[in-house]
Amino acid sequence: MHKQWDVRLSFDEDGTHTSCQASLIGQGAPGLAGHGQAERSTQDRPVSRIGEELAAARALGALAEQLRDQAAGEVDRESHRVGYLMY
User: Fold this and answer.
1) Rounded Cα–Cα distance for residues 54 and 49 (Å)
2) What is this structure's pTM?
């Protein structure tokens, strides 16, 4: 059986602040999303790619944490052994 989940990254930027929403999409995906932000210093050149990369990394980290927590909760419920999943 083959399944596929994709990650969608959506960005909003105002010249100083960049935010990113990372969402899992696809059939059977758990419907989780992570949010990340970056802020450009007034002393830095306005290179939007850097803010996008940083905001995306933070959003993906938040998404990974949610996914790990959800899996751990499901393992706990299924195995009846709290804290069984190590990460």
Assistant:
1) 9
2) 0.85
